[in-house]
Structure formats: structure tokens, C-alpha cells
Write a structure and sequence with these properties.
By secondary structure, this protein is mostly helical. Helix content is 85%, strand content 0%. The relative contact order is 0.11.
Length: 231
């Protein structure tokens, strides 16, 4: 048993009271700020549910075939989706898919600009790196605790927790890919009189695209892993 060196009850009560105050006075504003994410999620979910099941299966099979150029994965995908439909799990599966798509898209929109800023500023990188380390260290379920406390059980906490959990790899890989651009190529671009924005869009991002796509792949996989817990 750890010894009771100091009385921490007043501090714990103060922390609880502070969180209660935030929920009471800022809960409505935070929910309003998160409403665009909820609208995006609901729109994606309605679109997936309204799409004919056979079209969804064909689209998933086509994506699987384009990814592998082999019939085995499309057949497995078709069998899995048919299994969901036969066991009356289609709408639940579409809700989970919508949550993953919305979280992945939002994470991409937030992570890539953040990675760009990190690649161009050592100070920002120094500030954000410990935060990203912490985000990747915490257990996935921990992300749900503050969001559920503020927003209550629902779609918004699941979406926010998934975004926070899935974004760090893409931030890091975007930063890494841009910083690893060949200095000789960058010097040649400067010699042609290009602006920093032109070098970023026309040189750095195309050269870093494989690394960025690897980050998007990692973000998608983490979103898929988290969305099951969040759902």
C-alpha cells in the first residue's frame, strides 16, 4: 500500500468540480462546434444505407480486385458482406463503415496540414512531438473517457475519439516525407525562382506522396481498429 503522505481529497474534488463546470457551461458550445462532424457522419451513413446492397458488394469487390489483381480477396469480401446481410447486420455494418470513413477523412484533413507545419518549423515539431508520443502511447479506450464526459454517449464521442487515435501516424509520416525531400531537388527548384508555396505543392508533396500514402494507410487501419471499440 502506498503511504498517505498528503491529503489529496481536496485536489481531487477540485478537479471533479472543474470538469463539472466545463460540462455545465461549455457543453452546449462544444456540441455546437462538433455538429459539422455529426452532419458529415450522418450524411455518409444515410448514403451508405440508401445504396443498394448489391451495388455496395460490387463496389467493395472492385476495390479489392484493383488492390490485389487477384480473385481471392474479392471473393472473400463478397462472402463477408453477404454474411452480414443474411444475419441482418447490414445497417449496423454501414453505420460502422460510415463512422470509419468520416473519422478517416477528418483525420486526413487535420493531419496533413499539421504535418506540413511541423516539417517547416522545428519549434512546432518540438512542441507537437511529445503530444504525438502521448497520443500513440495511451490505450485506445482512454480517448473515449473525456469525450463521453463532455458529450455523453453517442456518435460524436465515438467520432472524436477515433479521429484523435488515428491522426498521429499521418502527422508524423507527412512531416517525415516532406523533410526527407532531396536537398539537391529543392535547390534546383529555388534556382528556378519558385516560391515556398510552389516548392511545397510542386516538388515536396509529389516526392513525399508515397510516405504520405503510407500514413493514410496507417490512419485508416487505426480508425478501423478504434471504431469497433467506439461503436
Amino acid at each position: 500500500m502506498f503511504p498517505d503522505l498528503i491529503d489529496t481529497v481536496p485536489l481531487r474534488r477540485a478537479i471533479d468540480d472543474g470538469l463539472t463546470w466545463v460540462v455545465r457551461h461549455w457543453g452546449g458550445a462544444l456540441e455546437a462546434a462538433a455538429s459539422p462532424l455529426l452532419m458529415l457522419l450522418n450524411a455518409i451513413q444515410r448514403g451508405l444505407v440508401a445504396t443498394p446492397w448489391w451495388l455496395m458488394i460490387l463496389a467493395a469487390m472492385l476495390i479489392a480486385w484493383l488492390a490485389t489483381r487477384n480473385w481471392k480477396l474479392p471473393a472473400l469480401v463478397a462472402g463477408a458482406l453477404l454474411f452480414l446481410g443474411l444475419f441482418q447486420l447490414w445497417e449496423d455494418a454501414m453505420a460502422t463503415t460510415a463512422l470509419m470513413i468520416a473519422a478517416t477523412l477528418t483525420a486526413i484533413l487535420l493531419a496533413i496540414p499539421t504535418g506540413i507545419v511541423m516539417s517547416r518549423s522545428a519549434r512546432v515539431r518540438g512542441l507537437l512531438s511529445p503530444v504525438l508520443d502521448l497520443m500513440q502511447t495511451l490505450p485506445s479506450f482512454v480517448y473515449l473517457i473525456p469525450t463521453v464526459m463532455i458529450f455523453g454517449p453517442g456518435k460524436v464521442p465515438a467520432l472524436l475519439a477515433t479521429i484523435v487515435y488515428a491522426a498521429p501516424p499521418l502527422v508524423r509520416l507527412t512531416d517525415l516525407g516532406l523533410r526527407q525531400t532531396d536537398p539537391a531537388v529543392m535547390e534546383a527548384a529555388r534556382a528556378f525562382g519558385t516560391s515556398p508555396g510552389q516548392r511545397l505543392v510542386g516538388v515536396q508533396i509529389p516526392l513525399a506522396l508515397p510516405t504520405i500514402l503510407a500514413g493514410i494507410n496507417q490512419t485508416t487501419m487505426l480508425a478501423l481498429a478504434m471504431v469497433v471499440i467506439a461503436s
